[in-house]
Amino acid sequence: MCGIVAYIGHREACPIILKGLRRLEYRGYDSAGVALLNGNLNVYKKKGKVSDLENFLSDKDTHSTIGMGHTRWATHGEPNDSNAHPHYSNSSRIAIIHNGIIENYSTLKTLLQSKGYTFYSDTDTEVFINLIENIQDENNCKLDEAVRLALHEVVGAYAIVVLSKDEPNQLIAARKGSPLVIGVGQDEYFLASDATPIIEYTNNVVYVNDYEIAIIKDGELNIKTREDIPTTPYVQTLALELDSIEKGGYDHFMLKEIFEQPRSIHDSMRGRLIAAQNHLIMGGFREFENKFVNAKRIIIVACGTSWHAGLVAEYLIEDLARIPVEVEYASEFRYRNPIITEDDIVIAISQSGETADTLAAIELAKQKGATIFGICNVVGSSIARASHAGAYTHAGPEIGVASTKAFTAQVTVLTLLAMIIGSKRGTIETSKLRSLMIELENIPSKVEQALEMHDKVIEIAEELKDATNALYLGRGYNFPVALEGALKLKEISYIHAEGYPAAEMKHGPIALIDENMPVIVIATKDSSYEKIVSNIQEVKARKGRIIAIVTEGDKVIPAMAEHVIEVPATSEYLVPLLSVIPLQLLSYHIAVMRGCNVDQPRNLAKSVTVE
Questions:
Q1: Do 512 and 601 belong together in one domain?
Q2: Neighbours of 56 (CB within 10 A)
Q3: What is the pTM of this model?
Q4: Which of the residues 72, 74, 221, 347 has the least number of beta carbons within 10 Å of its own beta carbon?
C-alpha cells in the first residue's frame, strides 16, 4: 500500500527520495515524510501529498547523502502529521519507514509501555521501531542484530528501512509479504517498493525475499536471513524504460494507459500467437501441460479488476476447454476452509504480483498440494516467485490506481491460455481455433477503432456527470464487463454504481429505475442479443436512461437508446476486450468533469499489500 524510497551513496539524497516518492505516490497519498542522516537524524513529515512535504522542506537543511522517504496509505491511525512516516524511536536515535501491518502490535505496545515507552502516534509502525530500540538496549547489540531479533517477535507483513544516528553510513532493510527492491549503482544503492524510482539511475536490481534482511554499509550490500544465514544477492537487469512511467503528454496516467491498450494487448500476445504460422504457445504452460489437460477443476483467485478478468476466464475455459472453473475472491478464499486437492490447478491473477490476499490464497492452496499458475504484470514480484509456473502480461507499468490496460492484458493472456488448453484437450475444433487466432491478432487494431469513439464518450459523460447512481447490465461474456464498468465509475468518480447480469434486473434492481437512472447496457451482437434487446425494452418502459454499447452497424438498439457507443464486430469470446474500452473512457471523463483526482482516488491505493 505505502511507498518506500531510500538512498545511500555519494549524491544528495533528498532530491532522489522526493522524486521517488512522487513516482510512488500512486501507492499511497495520505501523508509523506523523509528522514535524513547527517550527524543528526532529522525527520520531516506532513499530512497530504508529496507536494505538501516539498513545501514543508523548502526552508529546511536537507543536505545528506543517506536518507529514506515514505508516502502513506493509512491502516492504523488516521492521516495526520503524527501518524505520517518516518517514525522515531523514543530516544530519537533510530527511525523507520514501514509498508504493511503488524498484527500483534497491540500486545507489543502494552509490553513496551510497561517498560516505560511512550507513544506519540496511533500506528503499529511506532511500536515496531521501539521494539527494535528496546531489543538493542537490552542486548547491547548492533542495529542489524536488533532488527533481526525484532523480526522474530512481530506477526504480520512488512517492508522496512531503518536508520540510526549511532551507526551512520548504514541502511538496514527487511521484508515479509510487502515488496522491496534494491537498485545497485556505482558505489550507491537505491531502495524502493517497486522499480519506478530506481530505473532513472540503474537497471541492476536485487529483489529482497521474504524473511531476508539487507545491510548496506560502507558501499557494500550484504543479505542474510532472519535466522542469520548469509545469502548471495541475485542481481537482475530490469527491462523497463523511463518514458514508460511518465505521462507522455496526457493529462493523467489513466488516460495514457487507456490509449496504450492496442500496444499492451499486442505485447501480451507477442511471441505467443502467430496465426499465419499456426503458432500458439505459452512458455509457463509447457511444464504443466499434462496437469492442465487432465485437470478436473480450475480455481481462479483474484481481487478487484483481476477478479473480473477471472470471471471472463471462467466463460472462456469452460467454453473452449470444457473444464469446470470456480472464481474466488482471494480475500474470502482462505477463510471458508475451501476444499482443495492435489489435482486442482489454481490460477492467481494480480497486476502488481504483490496483492496480499491473493498471496495468502496461494500459500493455502500450495499447502493443500495444488498447482499454482500465476498471471501478473510485474517481473520478479512475489506472486511470480510463489507460483509453480505462470505468464507475465507484459502490459508495461500501470501507474493509474484504476486498472485499465491491466484488465485487457489479463483477459488476453487468459484467452490464450483457454485456447491452448482447449487445443491440447481436443475440445475446440481446428477451424474454430484457427479463426479465433486470426481474430485475436486483429484485436489491437479494433481497440484502436473503439478508441476513436472518444469524442462521443465525452458528450455522454457531460450528460451523466451529475448522476448519483448507475446500473451496468450485460449478459454472458459481457456480464464481467458490466461489473468492471461499474467498478471503474465507483473508483474514480465516487458515483454509486452496480453491475448485474441483465436478466437479473427484474429480480430486484428494476425497482431502482426511473427517469433519473442511467442504465449502461453492453449489448453487442452475440448469442444473447435478442434477450438483451428485451431487457432494454424493460428499462425503456420504466423511463430509464439507456446508454448502449453496441456492435458497429446495429440498427435495432439505437432506436431504443438515448445514447449509443459502437465497437467493432468481433468473436463473442473476445468481445470483453472491446466492450470495456468505452466504459473506461466514460468513467474517466465523468470523474474529470466532477473534479475528482483520477490517478489518486480517495481511500484507494494501487497495490493492496495488506490484508
A1: yes
A2: 18
A3: 0.79
A4: 221
